[in-house]
Fold:
Amino acid sequence: MADWQRVLQLKPEWGQADNGDISIQSLAETVAVRLAKLKPFADKYINEERDDIVAEFKDLAENEDATADDFDAIMSRLYDWADTSLDSSWNGNKVCWVDR
Structure:
């Protein structure tokens, strides 16, 4: 298993959104806030990519017309970022585990 360097905790809000108890916008705000609070990396690219993803989630949180598909598109980018390898080892250090 990969050695995840950070954990992005999205519980319990993820389940609340699945149940319809909170909106996509509210979940997007939660993701943005928690992602922004992660300890920075020594790698400028990884930090800038995180900041761009945070901005996308913040924009979505303010968009009354945002859909689940819009949210999923940003989540896909988040998963790609989170799965970034930090070393040359197979299944070695990776950026972040997304716990939902």
About this structure: DSSP finds four helices and two strands in the chain.
